[in-house]
Amino acid sequence: MGADDKLEAKGDQLKGEVKETAGELTDDEGLQAEGKTDQAKGHVKEAVEKVKDAFKKD
Length: 58
Known about the structure:
This protein is mainly α and 58 residues long. It has helices spanning 3-26, 29-57. It is elongated and about 45 Å long.
């Protein structure tokens, strides 16, 4: 997993957490949903990179 890819995935996760929390504080369901989507996107990117790494090791 490249360093840039790791940072991007973690950044998406963090951005999602912030958006979700902001949505909870302001009762903005759209912002909450957007935050959850960003977090999921970050987790998927992270998983894809881990799979790539697994194949590179062989």
